[in-house]
């Protein structure tokens, strides 16, 4: 656990140079679902993959995107650990200027995040958990901002659940993968 924390701190404080490649969003989210399956099942959480056919690729650094999505999925599972619920890993195409955007969403049906906490979730070392460093979401945000043209946002309703959304431009140009 300490090794993981130290690696996260190292990535956060001194990011390495990475090369963005074309990423298949369905494959990415399928891999995340596979990686968190055991923890989800152990917590009484159902997992739903909701990626319609035809979602175009995005450009990003694969290992960083996996780190982002696994962290978000594990947080969602932890939020539902006491009551169970549903983890949704989804994507949709938002048409618009410059070829459009792909929204990648990690949603849960957990307790939601109260407004006063929602304002602070991206702060380093802020946590409401009894165990944890409070670095997960600050690292996620830093990694998301390194992905070309990517924005990250959160929506939460107490008693309903939380959705974290990565918005990424549709990839164009030749594949580096």
Could you give a short description of this structure?
The protein has helices at residues 2-13, 25-42, 62-79, 115-118, 136-146, and strands at 21-23, 45-50, 58-60, 85-94, 101-108, 151-157, 161-169.
Record the SSE blueprint:
Elements: H1 2-13, E1 21-23, H2 25-42, E2 45-50, E3 58-60, H3 62-79, E4 85-94, E5 101-108, H4 115-118, H5 136-146, E6 151-157, E7 161-169
Parallel strand pairs: 2-4
Antiparallel strand pairs: 1-3, 4-5, 5-7, 6-7
Helix pairs in contact: 1-5, 2-3, 3-5
Features:
alpha+beta; single chain; two-stranded antiparallel ribbon; five-stranded mixed sheet; 5 helices; globular; 36% helix; 177 residues
| Percent range for β-strand residues | 25-35%
What is the assembly state of the chains in this entry? single chain
The helix content, as a percent range, equals 25-40%
Major beta sheet, specifics? 5 strands, mixed
- The overall pLDDT, averaged over residues, is 86
Unreliably modeled segments: none
Q: Counting H and I runs of at least 4 residues, what is the number of helices?
A: 5
Give the spatial strand order of the biggest sheet: 2-4-5-7-6
Number of strands: 7
**Global morphology:** globular
Q: What is the CA-atom radius of gyration, in angstroms?
A: 16 Å
What class would the helix/strand composition place it in?
A: alpha+beta
- What is the H-and-E element order? HEHEEHEEHHEE
Rounded to the nearest angstrom, the distance between the terminal CA atoms is 31 Å
């Amino acid at each position: 656990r300490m090794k993981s924390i130290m690696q996260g701190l190292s990535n956060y404080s001194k990011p390495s140079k990475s090369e963005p490649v074309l990423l298949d969003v369905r494959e990415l989210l399928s891999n995340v679902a596979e990686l968190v399956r055991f923890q989800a099942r152990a917590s009484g959480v159902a997992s739903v993959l909701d990626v319609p056919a035809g979602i175009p690729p995005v450009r990003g650094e694969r290992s960083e995107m996996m780190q982002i999505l696994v962290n978000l999925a594990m947080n969602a599972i932890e939020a539902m650990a006491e009551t169970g619920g549903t983890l949704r890993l989804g994507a949709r195409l938002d048409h618009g200027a410059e070829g459009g955007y792909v929204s990648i969403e990690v949603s849960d049906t957990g307790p939601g995040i109260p407004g006063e906490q929602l304002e602070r979730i991206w702060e380093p070392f802020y946590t409401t958990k009894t165990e944890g460093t409070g670095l997960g979401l600050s690292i996620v945000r830093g990694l998301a901002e390194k992905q070309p043209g990517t924005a990250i946002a959160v929506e939460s309703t107490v008693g309903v659940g939380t959705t974290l959304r990565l918005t990424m431009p549709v990839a164009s140009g030749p594949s580096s993968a």
